[in-house]
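Minutes, project check-in
Item: structure for the 337-residue chain
Input as provided by the requester:
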Amino acid sequence: MTAAILALASLVAGPALADKTDIVVLRNGDRITGEVKSLDRGQLRYSTDSMGTIYIEWKDIDTLVSKEFHRVQVKSGRRFFGTLSDKGGPETLEIPGQRGAVEPLPLMDVVRITPLEQGWKDRIDLTVGGGYGYSKASDVTTFSVYADTMYTAETRVVSASFRSDTTDDGDDTSTRNLLTGQYQALRENRKYRFLLGQAEQNDELDLDLRLLTGAGLGKYYLQNNRRKWLAAGGLGVAHEESGDGTADTDLEAIFQTRYDSFLFDTPKLDLTANVYVFPSITNAGRVRSNYNVTLSKEFVEDLFLDLTLSGAYDSDPSSEDAAKSDYTISTGLSYEF
């Protein structure tokens, strides 16, 4: 009877224990057994039995071994599929399951690793935050709420962001809300196709609602463990409803550029700059844009202090009384899940 119970227990526990069979060897000689969750932005997310989920800086790793199937992406944008081996020697990564002969890859050329059997929840990054400010001299109060999320799979990236800013000067209150969603279908050589959707409201620009849908092509021109830079272009259709009751629909060009810089030495320090420019095609001469620049510094694990410049510009707003630009400089706290 005891033997039967032990056999049943081993069948139940076996799969759970078998999950954590990957091996990381650090440059200082430490050896850690666990499970690779992801490599992104210069950090290996690694699950262990004794320490829980830890983050290891990629530059501190000497070898990595895993019998599980992964997608591996290098600086050039080329992607490989297979298991992970240390047979190429220290500071290299060999991928035995890859079709065709592949030389061992230098570890520092690898910028992303994704387990192919990973659940969808493990592929989602989520950051939420908020800020509050008050100037006694001008009697102006500002309040901000923001959130960013990203889902990364083998051949696609889905992202969404939301930001809401409210300003009260004692006499009037103005709000600005922007919701952006983007789908990227990844291709070879760091190129991608994208679908874009935006919903926007801005009191300063006398904009009750703007809805935009568009599509185009983009490319990651820089992608390593410290920096990412992309640029994209396409076409979109924007429908606007202004505060004076008028409505209009325009065909617009879409240009986007985004730059991310990551510093992972404690404390973490991240810089993100994201800019969209929309020159109108049907209303020649009109150009509008949205921009967001954020500097984030971690002061408690996964809790960040943010300094953000965000705003909007429209060279030809629908109302003569409307401002052409609106921006907010704010500080806030955000938490990274």
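Outcome recorded: Residues 122-336 form a domain with the Porin fold (CATH 2.40.160.40).
No further action items on this chain.
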